[in-house]
């Protein structure tokens, strides 16, 4: 099994079971479309948010691929994206560019 | 078991407790016999009509340091470092039983335990814990390394089975081990009243244990199974689903099982036992084929044991940092195919009761329709 260096987190607001279903469907799309840029390592759901976790060595390239998968839906999702070295506390924000702080509830 | 020693072949014979009791040549001649007193290696008999008995003197771990003849002369003395490395013996080698009383292969420098081999030179197992990530305790970083021998504490702990360190402090009602005294984990510890037969020692998941989809058990061990069911029934028939056994017995003299009954899974069971029983067989089948791509369904709980969120991952140990756990931890609820874990997770979200997890807004409207009080409280 390949050990990836970074954990890329896609964070979306989720307050209903409908949100849960849509985000799981989105996760499936990413699993199919990410290719060799990384591995989708599931998600968590609760506290008003859902996070999709991607293990990758190329977080920016992986997010670019995710943006392509999301297409026109991207601006409507309220998506926040950041990455960190696996095991580290500090995130580097990728999206939106003006986001000052990113954390996982 | 057959082994090649140089140009010759020998056979090792084991008793029903898994202890090596004899070495026999390829011609069927008895080369050596081992004598035990309970679990303790007592002596070696060199075999044959002119055989000689050598008595063993071991340290507190059972590592054999000296062997003496019948009249008391020292025939062999050995020194080694904490992991059994740098073993040096003087005198005549009368038995390969060395580090913690287990068979030491002087050619490969491996100590052969029941389920795994310990590399003395590397100071670790040569294979990962067969329980994989389920063997890791998020609160104990030493357990995260699935190759680590006895939590890297070899001067205090031993692991003759290769499945679980022995000698820890702590313990619950009749059992001992991680989590036994944790009031938040709902871990039950107990000791089977009847030791199972040795052939049943292999860690076992799923089928054969009633309707439980997830439990490390021991095949055919009715004594353990019946006690487990009794415990589960006493707390709400939770064994039908959602039971997560996180401990394994390694020494039947001190056998114990640790069973976690997730709070949310218990809640999900209430008034819903019929469909769960019908599903149980399917769940067992899917869980029993868990592989390295196994997906874990977990519950993230806070420091007070309160529910925070559910999630699925292939790597529960690396999912959150210690700061994000903030004194809480992950409870592994189930493991298996991703599709099954998704189904279980969705079911948990559907049935999650309104409680301290008021920020968990999934399905609140349905809860309100059921007459439950909505947050805030």
What does this protein structure show overall?
The complex is a heterodimer of chains A (105) and B (377). Chain A has 105 residues and is α+β, with helices and mostly antiparallel strands. Chain A has a single domain (6-95), classed as 2-Layer Sandwich (Alpha-Beta Plaits), CATH 3.30.70.600. Helices cover 28% and strands 32% of the residues of chain A. Chain A has helices at residues 17-33, 59-70; strands at residues 6-13, 39-46, 49-56, 80-85, 92-95. In chain A, strand 4 and strand 5 (92-95) form a beta hairpin. The longest helix of chain B has 15 residues, at 273-287. Chain B starts with a strand and ends in an 8-residue tail after the last helix. Chain B contains seven helices and 21 strands. Chain B is elongated and about 85 Å long. Chain B has helices at 222-234, 263-269, 273-287, 316-319, 322-325, 338-351, 364-369; strands spanning 2-5, 8-14, 20-25, 30-37, 40-45, 53-58, 64-68, 74-79, 88-91, 103-105, 110-112, 117-119, 124-125, 187-190, 203-205, 216-218, 244-245, 257-260, 295-301, 307-313, 329-336. Chain B has two domains: 2-123, no CATH class; 165-369, no CATH class. In chain B, 17% of the residues lie in helices and 27% in strands. Chain B is an alpha+beta fold. In chain B, the strands form five sheets. A nine-stranded antiparallel beta sheet of chain B has the order 1-2-3-4-5-6-7-8-9, with no helix packed on it. In chain B, 39% of the residues are buried. The interface between A and B is medium-sized, with 27 and 31 residues.
């Amino acid at each position: 099994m390949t050990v990836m260096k970074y954990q890329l987190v896609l964070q979306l607001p989720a307050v209903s079971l409908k949100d849960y279903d849509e985000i799981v469907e989105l996760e499936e799309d990413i699993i199919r479309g990410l290719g060799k840029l990384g591995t989708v390592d599931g998600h968590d759901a609760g506290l008003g948010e859902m996070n999709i976790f991607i293990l990758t060595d190329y977080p920016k390239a992986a997010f670019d691929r995710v943006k392509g998968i999301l297409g026109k839906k991207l601006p409507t999702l309220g998506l926040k994206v950041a990455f960190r070295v696996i095991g580290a506390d500090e995130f580097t924000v990728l999206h939106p560019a003006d986001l000052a702080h990113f954390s996982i509830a | 078991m057959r082994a090649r020693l140089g140009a010759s072949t020998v056979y090792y014979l084991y008793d029903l407790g898994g202890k090596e009791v004899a070495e026999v040549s390829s011609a069927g001649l008895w080369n050596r016999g081992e004598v035990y007193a309970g679990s303790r290696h007592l002596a070696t008999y060199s075999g044959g009509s002119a055989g000689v008995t050598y008595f063993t003197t071991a340290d507190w771990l059972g590592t054999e340091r000296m062997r003496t003849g019948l009249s008391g002369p020292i025939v062999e003395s050995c020194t080694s470092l904490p992991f059994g490395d740098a073993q040096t013996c003087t005198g005549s080698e009368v038995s390969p039983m060395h580090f913690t009383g287990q068979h030491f292969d002087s050619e490969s420098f491996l100590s052969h335990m029941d389920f795994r081999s310990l590399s003395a030179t590397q100071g670790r197992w040569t294979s990962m814990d067969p329980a994989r990530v389920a063997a890791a305790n998020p609160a104990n970083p030493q357990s995260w390394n699935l190759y680590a021998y006895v939590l890297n504490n070899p001067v205090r702990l031993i692991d003759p089975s290769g499945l679980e360190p022995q000698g820890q402090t702590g313990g619950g009602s009749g059992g001992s081990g991680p989590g036994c005294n944790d009031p938040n984990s709902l871990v039950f510890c107990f000791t089977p009243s009847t030791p199972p037969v040795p052939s049943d020692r292999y860690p076992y998941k799923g089928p054969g244990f009633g309707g439980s989809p997830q439990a490390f058990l021991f095949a055919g061990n009715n004594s353990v199974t019946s006690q487990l069911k009794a415990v589960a029934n006493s707390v709400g028939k939770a064994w039908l689903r959602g039971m997560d056994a996180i401990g394994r017995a390694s020494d039947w003299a001190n056998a114990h099982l640790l069973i976690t009954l997730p709070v949310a899974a218990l809640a999900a069971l209430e008034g819903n036992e019929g469909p769960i029983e019908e599903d149980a067989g399917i769940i067992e089948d899917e869980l029993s084929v868990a592989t390295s791509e196994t997906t874990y369904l977990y519950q993230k709980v806070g420091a007070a044991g309160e529910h925070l969120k559910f999630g699925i991952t292939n790597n529960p140990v690396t999912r959150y940092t210690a700061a994000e756990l903030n004194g809480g931890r992950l409870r592994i609820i189930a493991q298996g195919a991703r599709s099954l874990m998704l189904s279980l997770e969705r079911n948990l979200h559907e049935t999650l009761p309104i409680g301290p997890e008021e920020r968990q807004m999934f399905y609140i409207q349905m809860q309100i329709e059921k007459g439950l009080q909505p947050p805030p409280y």
